[in-house]
Structures are given as structure tokens and as C-alpha cells.
């Protein structure tokens, strides 16, 4: 099968981790007789430098004409003082909006061998398996006005949190569908004690819940949810929430697995193409040193195979290989713990590739 993947490495550690994920995809191609075509595009700060825009038209066209998109991360100090339209993050927000990627799926899985890398006690995180569904194209990230202004003669600023019923409903529907395939429990997170948009969100959730009688719905205020995620994360299965709450809670959830460098994501629309990226950023503090953890991006590539290309076996073998590499004690610095072996980004990628090949050989010999 020939499929086209748009590859947007972005900034900071983006190119290093995306390179790793592509190498893993190539091993899958060779061993499963697939053919993927990779076409590269600029996004973020590098696109500002090269094309004068954080999301050039040619990148949008490339994405629209591909079967799936793999993205690294954008941003960095170099571009922080640019005018808003030229900020790297604007490129990311715009591609999400252009492709109508309204639901961002962020699974958080417990890895037994990483228990020692989490600041939380093993009994708290053991067996955690939660799935954040984050609304991605609405809310305070996109509401207008968003600008500097004058308030009572003083300089001020305004951002606008706005949601239509349709925007809320479609992401909630998606979350209920996902919950039906898992343990049939949803926690809808909001701030309905304060925000009108959250009260609408809660109403919509209650309405949709009637269509899914097999799924149990609970509501939780976001401040409590942030605390419960650390106190007792195993109470959660699917968490559905609006854009900014989902951004914050999913970074928090990554601590349960041991590191931000472990969490993949898929951003989906009604029609595709879908976009896959790690949940972390461009990590300027460690960029260019070959020490970043490539596993979140490799796991994002696995999600791409599963969700966009329906290649379940191929996705699963990548995930199993990642597990095995961790079990074998290989660690980038962010997940180091006693009695493990520190490896570089490229060495970690090599270990994952070796494990995939070894697993396939074992299967053949079985
Ligand atoms: N999706 C994206 O492209 C995305 C997401 C978040 C932040 N950003 C951007 O990234 C830049 C840096 O933001 P930040 O520092 O707040 O967040 P960040 O996620 O880049 O980094 C936070 C911390 O986690 C570490 N980290 C992140 N990914 C890692 C990995 N794969 N391996 C090892 N350590 C890792 C970093 O070294 C840093 O200490 C900003 O410009 C921000 O806007 C982009
Ligand atoms: C870089 C930023 C715009 C982005 C977001 O807030 O969505 C990031 O934090 C993420 O989680 O993908
Ligand atoms: Mg984020």
C-alpha cells in the first residue's frame, strides 16, 4: 500500500525526534511490505526563517494532499519576541484550524519499568490507563477579541473564551464513542461553577449521555481534577475537556508515566487527514544535544499507523518494542532511574528498531 505522510519536523528537538520516528516507520515498511512516501514541510520558527510565515501555504497544501501528518514541535526563544502572526505557535494553531482537527486524543499509559521515573509512588500510578480527549479548535485559544486594549484608561489585554454548542457536541460525541470501546466511564472536566461556557458544556454532556446509556458520565471541576489526577489517577478512564484545560491536564498526566517525553497524540477531524504529534514542545533547553526522548514521537507514529492506516499489527509491534526497550533498561535522561542505562536519542531509536526486528524474527520462528 502506498501512502503519503506529510512530515513537519518544526523547531528545537522536533527534527531529532521526527527523524527517529521515520526510521522506525521505515523498519515497518521493510518488514511488512508497505511503501510510505514522506514529504517534508516547514512549520513554526523554521518556516518563519525560511518562508516568512509560521505556516506557509505550501505546507497547508502538502498536509491537505497527504494521508496523514507527523509533526515534531514548534517554538523557541529565537522567535518569542516576534509579532503575534509570526509566532511559531500560530503555525500550529492554524494547521489545527485549517484541517478542522477538533479532537486531540492523548492516551496516558503506565509502564511498569518506568515506575521509578515518576515522582509519584508506584501504588498510585500502577495500572493507570487514561485517555484525555481535548477539544482543539475552539475556546480561549481562538476566541476574538484577543488583543491589547485599554481598560478604565489603563493598558490591559483581553482574550475571549467562546464555544458554540456544535463545537462542544462533536468533541463530546467523539469522547463517548471512545469510552464505549474502553471501560465505559467518562469524566467531563469544566469550571461550571464560574464559566458560562462550562455550564453549556455540562448541559451538552448531560444531553449526549442519554444517547449512550452504557457509558457513565461524571462531571468534575477542573481545579479538583488537577488534584485528583495526582491523588488517585486510577479513578479516571476517558477525560473530556475544553482546549486549555486539556492542554494543562495532559501535561500533568504525563508525569504519571514518568515523563512528558512519553506521551503521543492524534488530532482528528470528521474527514482526515489526521495529525500526529508528541504532546510536548520543542524543548529548547535540550535541543541539538541528541538527548531528547524520541518515544512520544515514535508512539505517535504508531497511532498514525493504527488510526489513519488501520495497521493494527504494525502499530502494536512498535508499542511492544518500546515496552521491551524500557524493560531492557534503556533510558534517555528524562526517564532515568537507578540501575538503568542512559542512551542518546539516536541510540534509543536504534534499540526500538532492533526490538521490532527481533520480535518479527521470533514470530517467524515460533
Ligand atoms: N506541540 C508543540 O509544538 C508544542 C507543545 C508545547 C510547547 N511548545 C513550545 O515549545 C517551547 C518550549 O516550551 P516549554 O519548555 O514550556 O515545554 P516543552 O514541552 O518544550 O518542555 C518542557 C520540559 O520538558 C522537557 N521535555 C519536553 N520534551 C522532552 C523530550 N522529548 N525528552 C526529554 N525532555 C523533554 C524539556 O526539556 C523541558 O524541560 C515553547 O516555544 C512552546 O510554545 C510547542
Ligand atoms: C504550543 C501550544 C500552542 C500547544 C497548545 O497549547 O495546544 C502545545 O502546548 C500543545 O499542547 O500542543
Ligand atoms: Mg501543551
From TrEMBL:
<feature type="binding site">
    <location>
        <position position="223"/>
    </location>
    <ligand>
        <name>Mg(2+)</name>
    </ligand>
</feature>
<dbReference type="GO" id="GO:0009098">
    <property type="term" value="P:L-leucine biosynthetic process"/>
</dbReference>
<feature type="binding site">
    <location>
        <position position="134"/>
    </location>
    <ligand>
        <name>substrate</name>
    </ligand>
</feature>
<feature type="domain" description="Isopropylmalate dehydrogenase-like">
    <location>
        <begin position="4"/>
        <end position="352"/>
    </location>
</feature>
<keyword id="KW-0432">Leucine biosynthesis</keyword>
<keyword id="KW-0963">Cytoplasm</keyword>
<dbReference type="GO" id="GO:0000287">
    <property type="term" value="F:magnesium ion binding"/>
</dbReference>
<dbReference type="InterPro" id="IPR019818">
    <property type="entry name" value="IsoCit/isopropylmalate_DH_CS"/>
</dbReference>
<keyword id="KW-0028">Amino-acid biosynthesis</keyword>
<dbReference type="InterPro" id="IPR004429">
    <property type="entry name" value="Isopropylmalate_DH"/>
</dbReference>
<feature type="binding site">
    <location>
        <begin position="76"/>
        <end position="89"/>
    </location>
    <ligand>
        <name>NAD(+)</name>
    </ligand>
</feature>
<comment type="similarity">
    <text>Belongs to the isocitrate and isopropylmalate dehydrogenases family. LeuB type 1 subfamily.</text>
</comment>
<dbReference type="GO" id="GO:0003862">
    <property type="term" value="F:3-isopropylmalate dehydrogenase activity"/>
</dbReference>
<comment type="function">
    <text>Catalyzes the oxidation of 3-carboxy-2-hydroxy-4-methylpentanoate (3-isopropylmalate) to 3-carboxy-4-methyl-2-oxopentanoate. The product decarboxylates to 4-methyl-2 oxopentanoate.</text>
</comment>
<feature type="binding site">
    <location>
        <position position="223"/>
    </location>
    <ligand>
        <name>substrate</name>
    </ligand>
</feature>
<feature type="site" description="Important for catalysis">
    <location>
        <position position="191"/>
    </location>
</feature>
<dbReference type="GO" id="GO:0005829">
    <property type="term" value="C:cytosol"/>
</dbReference>
<feature type="binding site">
    <location>
        <begin position="281"/>
        <end position="293"/>
    </location>
    <ligand>
        <name>NAD(+)</name>
    </ligand>
</feature>
<keyword id="KW-0479">Metal-binding</keyword>
<keyword id="KW-0100">Branched-chain amino acid biosynthesis</keyword>
<keyword id="KW-0560">Oxidoreductase</keyword>
<feature type="binding site">
    <location>
        <position position="96"/>
    </location>
    <ligand>
        <name>substrate</name>
    </ligand>
</feature>
<keyword id="KW-0520">NAD</keyword>
<feature type="binding site">
    <location>
        <position position="251"/>
    </location>
    <ligand>
        <name>Mg(2+)</name>
    </ligand>
</feature>
<keyword id="KW-0460">Magnesium</keyword>
<protein>
    <recommendedName>
        <fullName>3-isopropylmalate dehydrogenase</fullName>
        <ecNumber>1.1.1.85</ecNumber>
    </recommendedName>
</protein>
<feature type="site" description="Important for catalysis">
    <location>
        <position position="141"/>
    </location>
</feature>
<comment type="subunit">
    <text>Homodimer.</text>
</comment>
<comment type="pathway">
    <text>Amino-acid biosynthesis; L-leucine biosynthesis; L-leucine from 3-methyl-2-oxobutanoate: step 3/4.</text>
</comment>
<feature type="binding site">
    <location>
        <position position="247"/>
    </location>
    <ligand>
        <name>Mg(2+)</name>
    </ligand>
</feature>
<dbReference type="Pfam" id="PF00180">
    <property type="entry name" value="Iso_dh"/>
</dbReference>
<feature type="binding site">
    <location>
        <position position="106"/>
    </location>
    <ligand>
        <name>substrate</name>
    </ligand>
</feature>
<keyword id="KW-0464">Manganese</keyword>
<dbReference type="InterPro" id="IPR024084">
    <property type="entry name" value="IsoPropMal-DH-like_dom"/>
</dbReference>
<dbReference type="GO" id="GO:0051287">
    <property type="term" value="F:NAD binding"/>
</dbReference>
Amino acid at each position: 500500500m502506498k501512502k503519503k505522510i506529510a512530515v513537519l519536523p518544526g523547531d528545537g528537538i522536533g527534527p531529532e525526534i521526527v527523524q527517529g520516528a521515520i526510521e522506525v516507520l521505515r523498519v515497518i515498511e521493510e518488514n511488512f511490505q508497505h511503501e510510505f512516501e514522506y514529504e517534508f514541510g516547514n512549520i513554526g520558527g523554521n518556516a518563519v526563517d525560511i518562508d516568512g510565515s509560521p505556516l506557509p501555504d505550501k505546507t497547508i497544501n502538502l498536509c491537505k494532499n497527504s494521508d496523514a501528518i507527523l509533526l515534531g514541535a514548534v517554538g523557541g526563544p529565537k522567535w518569542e519576541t516576534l509579532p503575534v502572526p509570526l509566532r511559531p505557535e500560530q503555525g500550529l494553531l492554524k494547521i489545527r484550524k485549517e484541517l478542522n482537527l477538533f479532537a486531540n486524543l492523548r492516551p496516558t499509559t503506565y509502564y511498569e519499568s518506568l515506575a521509578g521515573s515518576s515522582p509519584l509512588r508506584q501504588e498510585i500510578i500502577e495500572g493507570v490507563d487514561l485517555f484525555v480527549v481535548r477539544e482543539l479548535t475552539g475556546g480561549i485559544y481562538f476566541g476574538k477579541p484577543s488583543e491589547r486594549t485599554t481598560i478604565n484608561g489603563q493598558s490591559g489585554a483581553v482574550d475571549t473564551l467562546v464555544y458554540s454548542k456544535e463545537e462542544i457536541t462533536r468533541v463530546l460525541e467523539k469522547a463517548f464513542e471512545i469510552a464505549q470501546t474502553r471501560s465505559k466511564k467518562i469524566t467531563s472536566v469544566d469550571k461550571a461553577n464560574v464559566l458560562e461556557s462550562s455550564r453549556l458544556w455540562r448541559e451538552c454532556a448531560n444531553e449526549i449521555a442519554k444517547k449512550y446509556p452504557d457509558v457513565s458520565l461524571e462531571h468534575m471541576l477542573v481545579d479538583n481534577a488537577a488534584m485528583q489526577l495526582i491523588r488517585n489517577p486510577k479513578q479516571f478512564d476517558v477525560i473530556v475537556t475544553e482546549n486549555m484545560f486539556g492542554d494543562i491536564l495532559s501535561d500533568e498526566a504525563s508525569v504519571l508515566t514518568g515523563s512528558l517525553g512519553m506521551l503521543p497524540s492524534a488530532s482528528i477531524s470528521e474527514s482526515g487527514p489526521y495529525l500526529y504529534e508528541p504532546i510536548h514542545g520543542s524543548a529548547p533547553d535540550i535541543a541539538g544535544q541528541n538527548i531528547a526522548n524520541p518515544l512520544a514521537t515514535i508512539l505517535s507514529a504508531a497511532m498514525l499507523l493504527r488510526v489513519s492506516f488501520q495497521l493494527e499489527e504494525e502499530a502494536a509491534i512498535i508499542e511492544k518494542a518500546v515496552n521491551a526497550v524500557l524493560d531492557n533498561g534503556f533510558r534517555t535522561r528524562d526517564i532515568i532511574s537507578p540501575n538503568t542505562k542512559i542512551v542518546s536519542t539516536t541510540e534509543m531509536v536504534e534499540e526500538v528498531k532492533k526490538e521490532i526486528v527481533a520480535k518479527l524474527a521470533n514470530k517467524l520462528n515460533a
